[in-house]
Write a structure and sequence with these properties.
With about 600 residues, the protein is mainly α. The chain folds into 4 domains: about 1-175 and about 200-210 and about 230-240, no CATH class; about 255-260 and about 270-400; about 415-480, Leucine-rich Repeat Variant; about 490-598, Leucine-rich Repeat Variant. About 65% of the residues lie in helices and about 5% in strands. The chain has 29 helices and 6 strands. It has helices at about 20-45, 50-70, 100-105, 120-135, 140-150, 160-165, 180-185, 190-205, 230-245, 250-265, 270-290, 290-310, 315-330, 330-340, 350-360, 365-370, 375-390, 395-400, 405-420, 425-430, 435-450, 455-460, 470-475, 485-495, 505-515, 520-530, 540-550, 555-565, 570-595, and strands spanning about 1-5, 70-75, 80-85, 85-90, 110-115, 155-160. The chain has a 6-stranded antiparallel β-sheet. A hairpin with a 2-residue loop joins strand 3 and strand 4 (about 85-90).
């Protein structure tokens, strides 16, 4: 091991691991958490941004407080953690964004901070990390970058062999003879003389640089490849695999991840709006590019962060919720609704995932896509999104219902009726004057499921509709046990225009009277049966048969008496209908008596 830029500003205070107090360890952990947050802020914002400057000031204050008391801070650098006197005080297993791995991959083993550290050094240190992190993994080298900066109170230790053999610091470019035909195979084998030249050049280069203290330089092994032991080769493979994975992460995704983690770590409320502004800008940029995959990843991160902090910090969770809502109100969403060509949308799955994460703000976009497509599978996926919106905010779903969009409005009526027991009634009443027959029929169906008198009063409004199918549907859905319904039906039958209605509509009225089971209803049905006793037109005969069918559904003495008289009517068709109804009554009575005897 050697010290890089090794010179001592003073005599360090010797510390024993057994003398390290829990309070000291706590201070170190706080410093590292703040250090990680400061680095993340430096990667997202420009150097003179208020957020970066605030983090740098806070980090310097904590380091100064620690160094004034303990003189130096010595941190061990491992692949996934920083250590303090052998104990892990900060861990991050994710190789792409791990701060320990950022230093470890370039050979650093120990990082030191000394008393006298200035705010300018801290800012420059963070800026150096930012610049190196923006370079490709194979080009960025934090060890070399820190060497060039020559910070007086920030030092590090790295092994010589790692620097010289793995990184190649100080080596002149090698001229290699390459067979172009063999080059396409993806492998280059060096000749023995080439290997010897590499070994000789490396040895000469090392001989020019004396070690501190005038110590002798150990000779290199005879074979150059012995510098890497089997265990080192395995370690190198792991590092290369991690670097390869990091190359697959886009800069946009990395910035999103850093910003959300920064919001997670930040406890100062006054810093939240600045971070939220950065996240909203990332979201807006993704929408401009129509990169819905990136927008989805950002929202997923925010949802996960909200869930993670909900129990410990309800105020921050509420802030994140409001941020998601603001993203759903992005003015660009309205522009997207007009500019997106749905039929040419390439990544439909990412777009649908984005809408599902956006919440109520996605309603209009989802509605537009539903109307633009005839694909039943795609429509079903959109309906799942609309259903989720309705569960959170039924008003946002109701606002999407329009007469000009009957297919969509029918589905919204169905969803509202299923999700909210009370909400549909005033909503559905608005469709009495709708111009769409399909919408009115769906509203009637949902009203009929309510089983409430208030729903029946709304259904009565549909009985004045100009379309017979709508009136019949409303009559069939009426629950005539309610006091407000029966008088209306009785008044209908007394109207002279009633006989001019179609047989289907008359049947619907008679069936409604029968469902009421009231004596008044039985009397009206008896009257319509008796009108064809002596002479009647074919329609009167059909009406009488409809009255018979309704009376047969009313098991009371009044109905039976009317059917007995009807069985003597002059019309053969009416007599047969009455006799069949009476036979049905007798069978029911016999079955009832048999059941009683058993």
């Amino acid at each position: 091991m050697i010290w890089k830029k090794a010179h001592s500003p003073g005599t360090p205070e010797i510390q024993d691991s057994e003398l390290v107090s829990p309070a000291q360890v706590t201070k170190v952990k706080e410093i590292l958490l703040l250090f990680a947050s400061a680095v993340q802020a430096a990667k997202i914002f420009p150097p003179h941004h208020r957020t970066v400057l605030n983090f740098a000031s806070d980090l310097h204050a904590k380091l100064k407080d620690y160094l004034d008391r303990y003189y130096k801070l010595e941190l061990g650098v491992e692949e996934k953690a920083f250590t303090f006197f052998g104990d892990k005080v900060y861990e991050d297993p994710h190789p792409v964004k791990s701060l320990p791995f950022f230093f470890f991959k370039d050979g650093m083993q120990t990082l030191y901070f000394y008393r006298g550290l200035s705010i300018e050094e801290v800012r420059a240190f963070l800026e150096t990390i930012r610049k190196v992190s923006q370079l490709p993994p194979e080009e960025g080298d934090i060890v070399s970058a820190l060497w060039e900066q020559d910070f007086p109170n920030i030092r590090y230790v790295a092994p010589d062999d790692f620097l010289e053999t793995r990184i190649g610091v100080g080596k002149p470019p090698l001229e290699m003879r390459v067979d172009r035909e063999e080059f396409s195979r993806g492998r280059i084998d060096l000749a023995p003389e080439d290997l010897e030249e590499i070994r000789t050049d490396a040895l000469k280069e090392r001989s020019r640089e004396p070690m501190p203290g005038g110590e002798a330089i150990p000779a290199l092994p005879e074979k150059f490849n012995l510098l890497l032991m089997p265990s080192d080769e395995k370690e190198l493979e792991e590092i290369e695999a991690l670097l390869l994975s990091s190359r697959k992460v886009s800069s946009e995704e990395e910035h999103q991840s850093l910003a959300t983690e920064l919001l997670c770590l930040e406890e100062r409320k006054d810093q939240w709006p600045g971070l939220a502004a950065a996240l909203k800008e990332m979201h807006h940029t993704a929408l401009q590019k129509k990169d819905f995959g990136s927008a989805s990843r950002l929202l997923i991160s925010l949802h996960e962060l909200r869930d993670a902090v909900f129990e410990e910090n309800g105020e921050k969770a509420a802030f994140i919720d409001s941020l998601i809502v603001e993203m759903g109100q992005d003015s660009l969403l309205a522009e997207l609704q007009d500019s997106l060509e749905w039929t040419r949308l390439q990544d439909t799955d990412s777009f649908l995932e984005y809408l599902s994460l956006l919440g109520p703000g996605a309603g209009r976009l989802a509605a537009s896509l539903f109307e633009a497509t005839v694909d039943p599978h795609l429509r079903q996926k959109i309906l799942h999104i609309l259903e989720a919106i309705g569960k959170k905010d039924s008003d946002a779903l109701i606002m999407l219902a329009q007469d000009s969009k009957p297919s969509l409005t029918k589905e919204i009526i169905r969803l509202i009726g299923r999700l909210h027991e009370k909400k549909p009634l005033p909503f559905l009443a608005g469709f009495i004057r709708s111009q769409s027959k399909d919408i009115k029929l769906e509203a009637i169906r949902v009203l009929g499921q309510a089983g409430e008198e208030a729903a029946d009063r709304i259904l009565l409004g549909f009985l004045s509709d100009g379309d017979e199918a709508v009136r019949i549907a409303a009559l069939q859905r009426l629950n005539t046990i309610h006091t407000s319904v029966l008088p209306y039906l009785l008044a209908l039958t007394r109207n002279k225009a009633f006989k001019k209605k179609s047989l289907a509509e008359i049947k619907a009225v008679f069936d409604g009277l029968a469902r009421s089971g009231s004596p008044e209803a039985g009397s009206v049905l008896k009257i319509y049966l008796q009108k064809c006793f002596w002479w009647s037109s074919p329609k009167k005969t059909e009406i009488a048969c409809l009255a018979v069918a309704a009376l047969s559904a009313m098991p009371d003495a009044l109905a039976r008496e009317a059917l007995r008289k009807g069985s003597k009517a002059k019309s053969k068709k009416v007599r047969r209908a009455c006799l069949e109804a009476l036979s049905s009554f007798h069978r029911e009575d016999s079955h009832s008596e048999s059941g009683t005897r058993v």
